[in-house]
Amino acid sequence: MDIKKIDQELREKTGTAAIESYTKYRHRQEPAPAAPGASVLFLGTGGNPEAVFSQVPRTAGFILVVDGLRLYVDPGPGAVVRAREAGLDLGSLDGIFISHGHLDHYAGAEAVIEAMCWGMFVRRGVVLAPRQVLERDRLLSIYHQGKDRLSGYKGGPTVRILEAHQPMPIGKVALTPIPAYHGEENYGFILQTESLTLGYTSDTNYIQGYTTPEGSKDLSYRGPIMDLIDIVDYRTDIKEAFSQVDVLIANVTSHNVYAHRHITTLGLAHLLRGSKVKLCIMTHFNHCCLSPDDLRPPMATYVEQTSGVRTLYAVDGGNYNIAEILRR
Ligand SMILES: [Zn+2]
Q: From the CA of 187, how far away is ligand 1's center (Å)?
């Protein structure tokens, strides 16, 4: 074995390969602008711990493409892997939105930031997140917030702190954070685009009290809701805010469990009733919605029939062209 020859070959090939990857990922060109219109690509549709560690359903969040803006919403565990599988160029992203500091919503964000900022080589893209995520709990490192002056990497995102009800312009659209009731600091949003208004609920509770054959109940009981007749007390601000949008992406979690922390489809049907929403897409399914039975089709049917609003359930890897769906 000629060790000198091996060494020489390794030096040459590594040098060439390093230049190649550097050119491909760091010293690269800005991608072509996104096509006009609005679409949502669900890299994952799961939420809560069982989905995180079983990946049924996946927990990678979704990418919104609206009016030329490419925004990654809640990149959970698996985000970069699912993006690679979908053949997606994360270096084309314009921004990342993190609703709150729970693993299924932020754990993939640092890797996505490295991709968006081209290996932390350039300053590009924006990260929108609650103060708690950025400052108090520092769930994104200072380096990934683009603020580590000593790292030697000059790149990184612009970081913007979400403020309730304060519209933030990004590209041609404006994003208004809507406070949610789940965990600590947490926001959904309303996105005002040229052609439509799109809402995202994030994780939030909704039902506060309901009637049963035995009388009224509040949400202090945390097991499955079996005896609901009608919802009488609910988050009125959530209903008011999201009733006004054209398209709503709703994190449901389940039909009737975890209602103290999540909308559930029982709550979503109530939220949509009498609203202006033309299309609702449900996501953030707990593992129990897919195993042992796939409960998503009856969940969508329940919401659509009860609310009168067209309702779809998102599937892992599904890409939804909003204008096309609304035309159908
Ligand atoms: Zn969640």
A: 12
